[in-house]
Amino acid sequence: MADRPAWCSDIDGVLLDISGVLYDSGGEGDGTPIQGSIDAVKRLKASPLKVRFCTNETQCTRQYLVDKLVRLGFPISLDEVFSPAPAACQVIKRKSLHPYLLVHPDAVPDFSEFDLTLPPDCVVIGDAANAFTYDNMNKAFQVLISQENPVLISMGKGRYYKEKDGLMMDVGGFMTALEFAAGCKAEVVGKPDQGFFLGALQDMQVPVEKAVMIGDDILNDIGGAQRSGIKGVQVRTGKFRPEDESQSVVTPDGFVNNLAQAVDLILGN
Amino acid sequence: MADRPAWCSDIDGVLLDISGVLYDSGGEGDGTPIQGSIDAVKRLKASPLKVRFCTNETQCTRQYLVDKLVRLGFPISLDEVFSPAPAACQVIKRKSLHPYLLVHPDAVPDFSEFDLTLPPDCVVIGDAANAFTYDNMNKAFQVLISQENPVLISMGKGRYYKEKDGLMMDVGGFMTALEFAAGCKAEVVGKPDQGFFLGALQDMQVPVEKAVMIGDDILNDIGGAQRSGIKGVQVRTGKFRPEDESQSVVTPDGFVNNLAQAVDLILGN
Asked: Backbone dihedral region of B48: left (phi > 0), alpha (psi from -120 to 50 degrees) or beta?
């Protein structure tokens, strides 16, 4: 993507994935900003374009994530970040259910509006990481198998993500495990759900044809955005693997080396 | 199944599932024989019919399982028991691979012929129970994702089984989790694989049309047997749930309350 595609001059809003695009997570500390990304976000926000951050991050609360990104140097505020937890809470409330949370312990505060001492009749699954124990998986399974119409709400369905130690299993596999064992189909909130992308666009009042999503996950970022009518640009950072470029069922509207290069193209620098 | 079906008089060989048919596992001790099952096995073995035991049990070695059943009072010997571990070993040897074992610690000795210190290039998954940690799942995932053609050998693909504390997730869900994350398809050894049933029939020299499988798992015992041309009788013990009788995609050749009733019908008592 050396040349600037024609559609770049017709963009009013930009959706950015966070992990693998802004920074690489993993290890003890806050993670490491990806070369040029802090400056790229600053340039985007100084431009006439609108910007929102669309993440499937569920290992912590939304507030914790924003605080971490600010510490790393990114100019970002809570109301610019779209993540699956609020969407999951909406589904639970609409159905008047009581959730069993198979989520990361640090993400539990995002569900503080629910009384978790009541007997659960639905399951919310997120990127629980080390909380994906056999015991916790069985508790979720037993809630589902005891219901006539099991409700499994999955915060994303990613295959894997990248940490310092290599590729790590994301929530998607554990979601399919529960689907298989309990004989049910999960309701996915977050990317690649169309409602998730459209909610972020509505918030910045940008129509789909004037929006672009920049992400490292070819299926959930790029494929999900394109199915919603949004352009999708794949970065070669984060979980990107060369096979994504040669063998994927999704064809992005562009490949770039990193966020900085994407912003160069979109802003026409 | 009050009346004796006509096919019962034409049976030369009987395949028996173990857990949920002979005994209920779970808890601290060896488990509990199901009412009438010890006597039923004795009557079958005293008849002209041939008997083999076909189990997907992979929480312990085959020898340990046989010793436990003998302690419970069942007349059973090692060479009568067919379980997935020997079949998994055959696949690994045929492909000249080195396995990563995502199995129950008590089942590891069944794989003593392999040098487990070598870098693994395939994964064997069994009913690992508490060994299904996020860390172990990731180790298996990382072996698979690093291979151009990932080899995942699954010892069974059961959805769940019954223990004292209720229904527990079986290997099938965790198999699908790895399939989803690594983008591969597992090779299943054990039930419902046709080769597994046919191997047991060959061992007792009985043709498929003169054989019956008695089990509590409608998909893996009954469905698997029927797809191999073997009759399938569903017991209402073990993991059986009323939905299996009214809503299943599989229609058994008969339903019985327990193994004792099945043996009554087959022997024509």
From this structure: alpha
